[in-house]
Amino acid sequence: MQTETAIGEIVSIKNVAERIRGIKGELMQTLKNLNEKIKTLETERANLMIEIDTLRKVAESRANALEGEVSMLRDEVKSLRELLGYGEE
Q1: Cβ-count burial 45-73 (b if 16+ within 10 Å, e if not)
Q2: Alpha-carbon distance 39 to 69, whole Å?
Q3: pLDDT tier, 59 (very low <50, low <70, confident <90, very high otherwise)
Q4: Could you tell me the pLDDT band of residue 78, with boundaries at 50, 70 and 90?
Q5: According to the 3-state scheme, what is the secondary structure of the chain?
């Protein structure tokens, strides 16, 4: 009786140890997958930051150009008013 119980406990311990190894392997694979995803996301983030910076520079350049155009148009309006004899409004 004692021997059968001891053998059963050994088999049970072996089964538990095998399950633990299986779980450990799955966890290691999950960790590897998560690390790969993190690296991918970090790369995407860096690319997006570069794209945002480029878009910001383009927007600033366009805004400056528009400010210049508006200033030029205001000067033209002022000149035309003076030419036509209109006072400043």
Answers
A1: eeeeeeeeeeeeeeeeeeeeeeeeeeeee
A2: 45
A3: very high
A4: very high
A5: CHHHHHHHHHHHHHHHHHHHHHHHHHHHHHHHHHHHHHHHHHHHHHHHHHHHHHHHHHHHHHHHHHHHHHHHHHHHHHHHHHHHCCCCC
> Can you tell me the distance from the alpha carbon of 75 to that of 68, in angstroms, rounded to the nearest whole number?
11
Write down the pTM of the prediction.
Answer: 0.61
Cα first-last separation, the chain: 112
**Cα 10 to Cα 1, 2, 42, 81, distances in angstroms:** 14, 12, 47, 103
Question: CB of 81 within 8 A of CB of 88?
Answer: yes
Give φ, ψ of 45 to 5 degrees: -60, -45
